[in-house]
Amino acid sequence: MAIYSNTRIVLRHLTARLMNDLITGTVVSPGSGTFVCAETPWEVADDYFNKYLEVFCYAGTGVGTSGNPTDWVNSTHTLTFLPAATLTAGDSVEMHLLYRVGEYNDAINLAIDMAARDALLHKVDESITLDDDTYQYTLPTQFLWVHSIQMESSTSGVYDSETPIDPRYWRILKAATLELEFVKNLWSPTDGRVLRIDGLASPSKLDIDTEACPIDPFYVVQQAAAILHQSRIRGADDESKFHTTQMAICQKLADTQLARMRVSVGGARPVVEV
Question: Could you tell me which CATH class the domain 22-97 is placed in?
Answer without folding.
Answer: mainly beta
